[in-house]
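Quick one: sequence plus zinc ion SMILES, need structure tokens.
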Amino acid sequence: MASAQTIYHGAALADGTGPTLRRPVTIAVRDGFITSISDGDHAEAVAAGATVVDASGATIVPGLVDCHSHLTLQGGAQWIARGADPTPELIDAAERNAAALMAAGVRWVRDVGSPRRADGGDGRERALALGLRDRWRGQAGYPYIRAAGTWLTKAGSLPTGLAVEVGDADGLLAAAVAQLDDGADLVKLYLDGPDQGVAPWSADEVRAVVAAVHARGATVAAHGSGLANCRLAADSAVDTLEHGFAIDDDTARELDANGVTLVSTLSVMHSWLTFGSTTTIERFADEKGRAAIAERLEMAEESVRVAHRAGVAIAAGSDFGGGSVRAGHLAWEVQALVRAGVEPWQALGAATWQGGRVFGDPDAGLIRVGGPAHFMLVHGDPLADPAALWRIWRVV
Ligand SMILES: [Zn+2]
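Reply:
Sure thing.
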């Protein structure tokens, strides 16, 4: 018996690999895989029994890849307090996050930190996202997950109870290996130390961790916000620098030379700016708070420009949950990259195929014959206006 085929005809296609729309284009799907992509509008050439979707006026975009997320956390203006919520609430939040991600066409999600708790599902104490990843694997209606374990910090860097704290470099290495033993796909190093402006480790110390993690087939994601922390991430050749809010020309050159991808999270500051009018929380709403956020955003945008100019690969992250953004709002990051000066097609690339490279799946964020039919149809041209990514008509 022939399986069902679906034909999407007459659409435009934007995949983040070039600056112009391909149009019209017709894509055929069978059994969840793309069987052909052809130029032209081929509704008439369809085999009997196929479902035909008139996609004229819509743009087909690959499934998105969110490279910086926190599945088990809630986001919002009180995101830090919400991180201490009881485990069942965090699990519920993760289920809602998964549904929101799928509805927004975000199919590949890299979790870069979750609290260490006794899991509601298997009772095992480890990073919560690891149990969710295992239970969701292969289930329809859930995104693909790569999960770090719990943040590894030098003692005193984050509120107690959230991260795995270590005192010295030997402890850091042992903690990284322990995360892999727990089943982590990647290790998250928190490279902001207890002293602002001072790198908590030497590059040699972090390089030893990177070597050990790579030897196990995993990768290292490094949080860095200040210049010293970004510099440490660059010098120690981690796989990704997360946030990277203070990158100078030297650091950008080093990131590029060492093949470190910058995972941008500019939309966090944009969400804080909205809290200036939607909350009465001082750090967002008073004049001093607003000015500080605007200044921080300006610095982060300049860092993106410096990195982009130096040829550093950029992947997009929302930081949903662990920052104030909500799950499924990755389009905001694409808009933020464009506002910072990245071309719209490259910003879309950051949220699709560039993110896919970081995620480590050759199918992630791509539309190709033989690949999985994970794409969405939106209205408008995301290569001219990234806001089109919010106007979702269908998710396939
Ligand atoms: Zn984060």
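The pocket of zinc ion is lined by residues 68, 70, 112-113, 319, 322-323 (CB under 6 Å). The mean pLDDT is 95.
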